[in-house]
Amino acid sequence: MFEIIKSGGWLMIPIILCSITVIAISAERYWTLNGKKIAPRHLLAQVWGWVKNNQLDANKIKELKNSSELGTILAAGLSSSRHGRDIMRDSIQEAASHVVHNMERYVGTLGTIAAVAPLIGLLGTVFGMIEVFTAITTEGTGNAGVLASGISKALTTTAAGLCVAIPAMISHRYFVRHIDSLVVTMEQDAIKLVDALHSDRRVDVKAA
User: Which among 78, 96, 135, 198 is most buried, taking Cβ atoms within 10 Å?
Assistant: First the structure.
């Protein structure tokens, strides 16, 4: 393995760094974007139970806000529920934009690596071919060792770049779709809460 990396030349270093970054981001995002942690299924029912039993106060809202990303969105809506449907929806949208931004953290980097890694490999290919043609110009076609070294560098960097780009692209697409799915779920729960509060009764948030 070391010989293969060595044969690719110095451009293998950024390709290796890209591969490490892809692994680290994929592991971190997979752990962080856990659907059960971000949008617990029971949370909306629990919140509505607090509302119906008149148990909703500042402490409950703080607890809800710190519980999960969905909790943060619902807490923002509940805090402004007394001011009407439109204000409540605006508060939810503002909180949701921050939540989604945090969920998308580092995901764009995967897309960037997926686009850049093949280009780095292609650059290695160009350098390798330059080395081949330089050897042909100076030494002719009789020195097979020099020619093989240049061709090896060209092929190795290209293959390495693709080996990094393909998993990076797969991870990027997976997390984008996963985030979209979570956003839809949170949006549906938030809309249900708004409709329930303003078609049934308003919620007065009791002071702690």
Answer: 78
- Rg for the chain, CA atoms, rounded: 27
**pTM (2 d.p.):** 0.80
Rounded (5°) CA angle 27-28-34: 95
Q: Letter for the amino acid at 14?
A: P
Which whole-number Å values give the CA distances from 117 to 28, 111, 156, 159, in the listed order? 21, 10, 13, 10
Residue 77: both structure tokens together: 């809506």
Of 174, 171, 161, which Cα lies nearest the Cα of 124?
161
For residue 118, how many other CB atoms are within 10 A of its CB? 22
What is the identity of the amino acid at 208?
A: A
CA–CA gap between residue 195 and residue 192 (Å, rounded): 5
> pLDDT of the chain along its 208 residues, tens only?
566 666 667 788 999 999 999 999 999 999 999 988 999 988 988 888 888 888 888 888 888 888 899 999 999 988 887 887 888 889 999 999 999 999 999 999 999 999 999 999 888 888 878 777 777 777 666 666 666 666 766 788 889 999 999 999 999 999 999 999 999 999 988 888 888 887 654 444 444 3
What does the domain layout of the chain look like in residue ranges? Answer: 2-200
